[in-house]
């Protein structure tokens, strides 16, 4: 039988563990796309050229709600480019319907994206960012189709589509 004191001590211990984990994961997440990039702007400069939603995803590593991007249904030939710096990131030929609610691709254009560890939400994921401006794009998972077996799960708001 547990006493109130046992429960209170257990709750305090869990809170301390959760706080320590949040501090560790939060700091690791914030540095996922740190580095030297060709395009560097201040937060104020990024806010001038991005919508609030684009800024939240590209610069603060937010995630758009699933099934809200019109790019989910984009089927034309063309290129998906970075909404921040317009670097071509994904070719339409690599796009597929993953059923997850976000535009998905099995491969980026060569030398278009960078990757880093994301420790948010108590798990380890592989974060994907634009190699030119460092903008957060989404994550890559090992459950995609052939030929790569990868699924680049990308926030639609971080992309623009240019038809060919």
Provide key terms for this protein:
three-stranded antiparallel beta sheet; single chain; 26% helix; six-stranded antiparallel beta sheet; 3 helices; Metal Binding Protein, Guanine Nucleotide Exchange Factor, Chain A; alpha+beta; globular; 164 residues
In summary, what is this structure?
The chain is α+β, with helices and mostly antiparallel strands and 164 residues long.
Structure report:
By secondary structure, the protein is α+β, with helices and mostly antiparallel strands. It has a single domain (31-163), classed as Metal Binding Protein, Guanine Nucleotide Exchange Factor, Chain A (Beta Complex). It contains three helices and nine strands. The chain has helices spanning 4-30, 43-49, 52-60; strands spanning 78-82, 88-91, 95-96, 104-105, 113-118, 125-130, 136-141, 151-154, 159-163. The chain starts with a helix and ends with a strand. 29% of the residues are buried.
Task: Lay out the secondary structure.
Layout: H1 4-30, H2 43-49, H3 52-60, E1 78-82, E2 88-91, E3 95-96, E4 104-105, E5 113-118, E6 125-130, E7 136-141, E8 151-154, E9 159-163
Antiparallel strand pairs: 1-2, 1-9, 3-4, 4-8, 5-6, 6-7, 7-8
């Amino acid at each position: 039988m547990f006493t109130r004191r046992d429960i209170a001590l257990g709750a305090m211990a869990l809170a301390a563990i959760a706080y320590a984990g949040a501090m560790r994961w939060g700091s690791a997440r914030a540095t996922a796309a740190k580095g030297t990039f060709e395009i560097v702007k201040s937060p104020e400069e990024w806010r001038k050229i991005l919508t609030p939603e684009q800024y939240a995803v590209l610069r603060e590593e937010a995630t758009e709600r699933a099934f809200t991007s019109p790019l989910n249904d984009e089927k034309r030939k063309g290129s998906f480019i970075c909404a921040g710096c317009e670097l071509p990131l994904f070719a339409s030929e690599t796009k597929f319907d993953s059923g997850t609610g976000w535009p998905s691709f099995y491969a980026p254009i060569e030398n278009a994206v960078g990757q880093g560890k994301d420790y948010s939400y108590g798990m380890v994921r592989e974060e994907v960012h634009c190699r030119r401006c460092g903008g957060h794009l989404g994550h890559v998972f090992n459950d995609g189709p052939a030929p790569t077996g990868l699924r680049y799960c990308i926030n639609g708001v971080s992309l623009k589509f240019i038809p060919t």
